[in-house]
Specification:
By secondary structure, this protein is an alpha/beta fold. It has a single domain (about 85-330), classed as Rossmann fold. The chain is built from 12 helices and 14 strands. It has helices at about 10-30, 30-50, 70-80, 85-95, 120-125, 140-150, 210-220, 235-240, 245-250, 260-265, 270-280, 310-315, and strands spanning about 50-55, 60-65, 110, 130-135, 160, 165, 170-175, 185, 205-210, 225-230, 255, 280-285, 300-305, 320-330. The protein is globular.
């Protein structure tokens, strides 16, 4: 049926009714949900005037782009933090393994797939790391990363490396996610249809290096590294393949364990073989709640490396992952 002349369109009606829907949802929500609704509406209001804002949390300034719809930005805007609880759990598990009460104190922190630099900010300002090397190839993320270092007066302690980390120097194809600044990633081989629509993504070409060569160029001794922090969306085995000096020096690694990404890159079995050859055991750190400000009594669950295939099988969903802290052999 054709609507009467002058009647509002369906889209206009939806827009007009949106405030009523929000009010109804707010009235039925609990207090936590109401906080979320208030902050989300505030985010939409502020970004009309200025999309780039600073969200301060207990002495750390996070520069974010409110136009971004990814989990990274949403968590920082809502909770005031993103990777801090996870890094605190990793440090606590290293302490349980006998690496001291402050295992990152005075050490170099390697941030591989640094995104906008949130892990490095926490390593320097919460965990006492002396310096960081931040590896991030995406231009938009790099701009925010540099702003985050500047906003916290850390430009002399954070060295930015505008490259992807892989198993060889050169160039790699880098695919871009439209809705998640944390899911840009190296494209391995020919593109195939993926659960997350990866075949439709735009790509750019970015420079690549190995961790061994990057440390040598920066004059960083592998023995000085307190933790290697890796979030590269399925490219982890290539990062390990280019880090022989770090593996020999016995640095611990904290890695996002995303079986879907590793399978898509064709490296899940190689990754499991590599970690079994180089590490003693792992700690499953899980995915901490954004409200977490104190390290729980059990910061992680110890996992034997022989059990990792079973752990991978328990994470079948393309959007599910966990975080593993790999402890080197003594």
């Amino acid at each position: 049926m054709t609507p009467p002349s002058g009647a509002p369109s369906e889209g206009a009606l939806k827009t007009a009714l949106q405030p009523l829907r929000i009010a109804n949802r707010y009235a039925r929500a609990d207090e936590i949900q109401r906080i979320r609704i208030r902050r989300e509406q505030l985010r939409k209001l502020i970004r009309r005037a200025t999309p780039i804002v600073v969200r301060e949390d207990r002495g750390i300034n996070y520069v974010i782009d409110l136009r971004d719809e990814s989990e990274v930005t949403h968590w920082i805007w809502f909770f005031g933090r993103y990777e801090e609880p996870l890094l605190a759990r990793a440090a606590a598990c290293l302490s349980l393994d006998g690496r001291g009460e402050r295992p990152l104190e005075g050490k170099t922190f390697l941030d591989v797939g640094a995104n906008i630099g949130t892990a490095s900010l926490c390593a320097l300002l919460r965990q006492g790391a002396s310096n960081t090397l931040l590896f991030e190839p995406h231009p938009a993320n790099l701009r925010l990363l540099r702003m985050n270092l500047a906003a916290n007066d850390l430009t002399t302690k954070g060295r930015v490396c505008a490259v992807a980390v892989s198993d060889a120097d050169g160039e790699v194809t880098f695919e871009e996610s439209e809705d998640n600044i944390g899911d840009h990633r190296v494209r391995d081989g020919e593109v195939e249809a993926g659960t997350l629509g990866e075949e439709h993504r735009t790509t750019i070409t970015v420079p690549a290096t190995t961790l061994d060569n990057a440390l040598s160029a920066a004059g960083v001794a592998p023995e000085s590294v307190g933790l290697v922090w890796v979030d590269v969306q399925g490219h982890e085995n290539q990062v390990l393949d280019g880090a022989a000096s770090l593996l020999a020096a016995g640095a611990p690694w904290c890695v996002e364990f995303w079986p879907y990404g590793l399978k898509r890159a064709g490296t899940l079995e190689r990754f499991l073989t590599t970690v079994r050859a180089n590490f003693s055991h792992a700690w499953d750190l899980g995915i901490p709640d954004g409200w977490e400000t104190e390290v729980p009594a059990q910061p992680g669950r110890r996992v034997e490396l022989a059990d990792l295939p079973a752990l991978a099988a328990r994470i079948p969903n393309a959007e599910q992952s966990t975080n593993l802290l790999f402890v080197p052999k003594s």
